[in-house]
UniProtKB/TrEMBL annotation, chains A, B:
Key word Amino-acid biosynthesis present: no
Its EC number(s): 6.3.4.18
Enzyme class: ligase
Organism listed in the record: Yinghuangia aomiensis
Record function comment: Catalyzes the ATP-dependent conversion of 5-aminoimidazole ribonucleotide (AIR) and HCO(3)(-) to N5-carboxyaminoimidazole ribonucleotide (N5-CAIR). Catalyzes the ATP-dependent conversion of 5-aminoimidazole ribonucleotide (AIR) and HCO(3)- to N5-carboxyaminoimidazole ribonucleotide (N5-CAIR).
Keyword list, A-Z: ATP-binding, Ligase, Nucleotide-binding, Purine biosynthesis
Name assigned to this protein: N5-carboxyaminoimidazole ribonucleotide synthase
Catalysed reactions, semicolon-separated: 5-amino-1-(5-phospho-beta-D-ribosyl)imidazole + hydrogencarbonate + ATP = 5-carboxyamino-1-(5-phospho-D-ribosyl)imidazole + ADP + phosphate + 2 H(+)
Assembly, per entry: Homodimer.
Pfam families, sorted: ATP-grasp (PF02222), PurK_C (PF17769), RS_preATP-grasp-like (PF22660)
Length: 381, 381
């Protein structure tokens, strides 16, 4: 009889599940996946894959039945289904009462205001005229509009400059949140992991560089960030994790404003792009710590292993097959760590990432950016 | 259409295949497994697992058909089957002409002698009386006897002190190799990886500490090993890899004698226990470099990431379930890296390993040994 370590179920077949499976192998646990198709990124790798629809309670139940705990690659499972799984006796982590704050930006903003976490000024807006009123309240256009549910990677987000442009977000028929357009110096992310026990660890605060609303590069730790500001960012993330009773990895995306404030931009309650650097760059990766947390195991050391770690996303370009580019990337730089997700290449889609660790930030950034650009096909030497 | 990166097939469902799968996930390749049962260590994790018998050519063919290359978790596939796969047009790496040196200790010793690699004195022996003659030739008993095929982890190896005891190895009916009992100061391992292109990388030379014929602990790099001796060991391994036309990872187990010589003990042409430290301790693990080599991709940086890395095997003890021990091991030391293989616990069986990296060798050794002993159940605090 083989050993029967607990089964962790993860809903969603994307790259986050793929990398969580990878982190689960050394832990000896069983990893079970609910994916929409056998071609999905994680389904290509995971032995115990159940094909089904995360919106169908029957499929969720079939998938969850043997699991010690169910967790998520994304935030798209309906709250009522999560409650049904809990009623079936399945541990759901993070639980529905926490997860709703990552699912609904309106609920998130309201709760963060209640507990005094600094956020951009915001409110739910009723129509374009109400957006114009909000613009007046915050000192003028442009204004950021977000559908409260369903957005990611810049989708579901608009930066609008007048009442006419403000009409678009309302067409989806979901509530719209207006936020002031923050004059930020840069974006940071504070990633923490918390277990049901209440143990928590904080990763070094990173700088995240976006391009067209999609993360391009993450630098760990954030350069020239004062100890004081870093601790402030970590405290904000730990406070949110505790107050919202988060289990697992919590990513808190932050604005660092030009006048020296830290404001919360977005939350994600799962492993997050801003934490991919931890696979190669930290003693314990975000994926391993997410698994430890949902299993209520003691958490692993979140500290960095190198002075600098830089992760650059590989976005889809013009070439459908990136494998031939491995030859040049790997021959040119034996230290670059390639992480490809097995996803079909589409322009702008995240299909992988590369990581480089080292002592010289300029060198590490140049190497990681070169590898990602070469894989994408935007440079040819 | 999902991307179709090459499929690497690995024969054998043990922990080496499990850890190779883990290393293959970031490379974006497809990993296909031939395992005897769905309960085997690697089969628990690998999506594309074919159940079958590695000794049956039909099963091997079904498994190998879609693979760009076939490689191995062990040395037990019959040479004639490997030649048949090659005749089918499948790349087999390492190839049968190389692999035979890891399958047959008689062939290995003959070939190493031809190319002038220092080995313990040895010859094939016909019967117990011939062993006694060999003992006379090398200066007396005890003598080491090995069946030329099928041994591992101390199985198929006898240290005998007289003619009577020398009878046992002959009972299996396979040829027996006699070797002088080397008065070694310690055991070392030189691990190298070589690609069909002829590119090769050498890992830092490690010290390997055995207990009852089974590896207990590996220290990277080998403490107090002179640069000169380390380079000599690496040159021996690189020379063997080149002369034998090895593709993939080659582990060369070595004796360092009290009189300052390096002698080759055993060869393995696959990822090897003496290289498990590289998962956490090197820029590129032996598993990733094995995959890169069999795919003829440029090899990754083999250098150590920490001053010291210590790996200790977790052997089966009296407790069938090691999972409860995670709580104490992880809470006591957030920096210990646990690697469990999903194997049933049997006394003395390798069921996992732990790794610790750091600057202070005594501290790193103590931490890794404590974690392994606690998981096994041989200490209780």
């Amino acid at each position: 009889m083989p050993v029967t370590y607990p089964i962790v179920g993860m809903v969603g077949g994307g790259q986050l599940a793929r990398m969580t499976h990878q982190a689960g192998i050394p832990l000896g646990i069983r990893f079970r996946l609910l994916a929409a198709s056998a071609d999905e990124s994680a389904a290509q790798a995971v032995a115990d894959t159940v094909l089904g629809d995360e919106k169908a309670l029957g499929d969720l139940r079939t998938f969850a039945q043997p699991c010690a705990v169910v967790t998520f690659d994304h935030e798209h499972v309906p709250t009522e289904h999560l409650r049904a799984l809990e009623a079936d006796g399945i541990a759901v982590r993070p639980g529905p009462d926490a997860l709703v704050h990552a699912q609904d930006k309106g609920v998130m903003r309201e709760r963060l205001a209640e507990i005094g976490i600094p956020c951009p000024r915001n409110r739910i807006v009723a129509d374009p005229a109400d957006v114009a009123a909000f613009a007046d309240e915050v000192g003028g256009w442009p204004v950021v509009l977000k559908t409260v549910r369903g957005g990611y990677d810049g989708k579901g987000v608009w930066v609008v400059g007048d009442t006419e442009a403000a009409a678009a977000p309302f067409r989806a028929g979901v509530p719209v949140l207006a936020e002031e357009k923050v004059d930020f110096a840069r974006e940071l992310a504070a990633n923490v992991v918390r277990s049901p026990h209440g143990q928590a660890v904080a990763y070094p605060v990173v700088e995240s560089i976006q391009e067209d609303g999609v993360c391009r590069e993450v630098i760990a730790p954030a350069p020239d960030l004062s100890e004081e500001r870093a601790v402030e960012a970590q405290r904000i993330a730990l406070r949110i994790a505790g107050e919202l009773d988060v289990t697992g990895h919590l990513a808190v995306e932050l604005f660092e404003t030009r006048d020296g404030r830290i404001l919360v931009n977005e939350l994600a309650m799962r492993p997050h792009n801003s934490g991919h650097w931890t696979i190669d760059g930290a003693v314990t990766s975000q994926f391993e710590n997410h698994l430890r947390a949902v299993l209520d195991l003691p958490l692993g050391d979140p500290r960095a292993r190198a002075k600098w770690t830089v992760m650059v996303n590989v976005l889809g370009g013009d070439y459908p097959d990136m494998y031939p580019a491995y030859l040049h990337v790997m021959a040119r730089d034996p230290g670059v760590k390639v992480h490809m997700y097995g996803k079909e290449v589409k322009p702008g889609r995240k299909v992988g990432h590369v990581t480089v660790c080292g002592d010289d930030l300029d060198d590490v950034r140049a190497r990681a950016n070169h590898a990602a650009d070469y894989l994408r096909g935007s440079i040819t030497e």
